[in-house]
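Give me the fold.
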Amino acid sequence: MIRVGVVGLGRAASSMLPSLAAHPRVTLAAAADPDPAARERFAREYGGMVFEDAEALCREAGVDGVYIATPHQCHAADVEAAARHGKHAIVEKPMALTLEDCDRMIAATRAAGTVLIVGHTHGFDPGVMAMRKIIRSGELGAVRMIVNLAYTDFIYRPRRPEELDTALGGGILYNQIPHAIDIARTLHGGPLRSVKALAGIWDPARPTEGAVTALLEFEDAAAASIAYSGYDHFDTDELTFWVGESGAQKRPAHGAARRALSAFTTPDAEARHKAKTGYGGSGTRATDGPAHQPHFGFLLVSCERGDMRIGADGLIVYGDEGVREIPLPPGRAFPNKDNVVDELVAAIHGTPPLHDGAWGRATLEATLALARSARERREVPIHEAEVAGAR
């Protein structure tokens, strides 16, 4: 059994904890968080050890690996702490905010001989993995075009002030766009050549990027088109059978997040409410319920001899012989978290992971190139992201 500790008991951890607790080859051994309410709840529900910070948890001999779900700017230091004490690590996306931090994380884990997995969870979605399997089989030929549309209420969900500051990793550039880039890279499998993007800050009261449209070009001239808006008007779940991102059935609620936000008169009040939605509060995400397929918006993949999209309960393939649906196994809401844990376990036992440190770094490089393209309003070759990462 692999004994895992959780660093950061926020919203991300609330959806990962059930996957860790239920995994047949994992023991949920410990957690670290500065919030005493979160620590008390973890100890009560899971019976594990609790600590106030990552360093103390990583020193614990009874922990083999850690799941890091702290704020983005803390990822590098927390991974280095894990490596320093010989612990394997899963780190939430984005891997870090600069390429220099990514390099530090990779160097630390390589020196320690530990595993590093970057948890771009939607790259692990069963539908994405099923598409990748068909692509790699050659059945439909090479990938030529990927279209990913995601329209959500992201900008109007309760936030801490730093979550509305792009320089600190706020907004959609670091929190949502890496999902789309990671999905495109997972499906295509080859290197990116360049990025052209535009981004918008459409609400001065929420002063961070809330909308992006981008074109990613791969070295073989395949392209991925990405459009994301977090401004809570149109909802792309309308195009995905009213199945939400987690795989749970949902009801249309256009503008509900905007209206709810009006109840908070100060940034402090909003931040306090955000804290309540974490593991230590009352708003923990549901992890049971309807078991449809998770997704990241509307995704359509065009190959030389057919197209594919994720259905409510399977993968829909549009080929030369007509349309067929390949059933995919159901699971809890957020079943993609299970696959993240699977990759960690397999990597510890010698299977090279897809989503390793080098992979996470390449996704950040593309994210930085996209941000630079939007800022400078020009196409940016991917290698130029090195310069953006140094700023």
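Residues 206 and 320 are 47 Å apart (CA to CA).
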